[in-house]
Design brief:
single chain; 202 residues; alpha+beta; 7-stranded mixed β-sheet; elongated
Length: 202
């Protein structure tokens, strides 16, 4: 699962909340792996952090509220800072040997008796994506397998580029979307303590 924490168009306080939320989630779940990050204007602040986790964090999707006086602007009246948590489309994992199914078949057409007697045609299916490539051009099964794999890898590379583009587009769409009110979580104070229940809104 790929998650993005974003400050949207928020000020440095929201960017600091992004960093604090990531640290809190890392401590809570333990297996977060940063994929990309965009630094904010102030030290230790982030406009957005995109990370991967093997755990299901879909319940965190939405707005997270941090209630704290501004650490950057003294006497600033605002104390509610919002960040967005979004689940982004994941990419298909490709390349593992067990993800391919190889089928052999008789080649038809010209080529003499050998073509019809030997299973020289090869079809390779990438199981997770159902993409298929086959080759009957070469006389040996080994060469056809190599050719089919080359074709399939090109198809998989194209699919991966498309997925990466969709992920980037989704990240940009979610980056500016922050819905204030009804936060999925509320943290308070400079120590970023999680508050639960109705008191979270006070």
């Amino acid at each position: 699962m790929i998650i993005q924490i974003s400050s949207g168009q928020g000020p440095s306080e929201c960017q600091l909340a992004v960093a604090k939320l990531y640290e809190a989630l890392q401590e809570e779940y333990g297996d977060l792996e940063i994929l990309s990050e965009t630094r904010g204007a102030e030290k230790n602040c982030f406009d957005s952090i995109r990370f991967r986790t093997k755990q299901d964090l879909s319940n965190l999707e939405g707005t997270v509220l941090w209630i704290c006086p501004s650490p950057f602007r003294k006497n600033h009246k605002r104390k509610n800072w919002y960040v967005d948590v979004s689940v982004l489309p994941d990419q298909a994992e490709i390349g593992a040997e067990e993800e391919y199914r190889i089928e052999k078949f008789h080649c038809g057409g010209k080529g003499g008796q050998n073509v019809n007697k030997v299973e020289s045609g090869v079809r390779i299916i990438h199981v997770p994506t159902a993409l298929t490539a086959q080759s009957t051009q070469e006389r040996s099964q080994y060469q056809n397998r190599q050719k089919a794999m080359e074709i399939l890898r090109k198809k998989l590379a194209k699919l991966q580029r498309e997925q990466q583009e969709e992920q980037i587009n989704a990240a940009w769409r979610e980056h500016s979307r922050i819905v204030r009110g009804n936060p999925v979580r509320t943290y308070v104070g400079e120590k970023f303590i999680l508050r639960k229940g109705k008191e979270a809104e006070q």
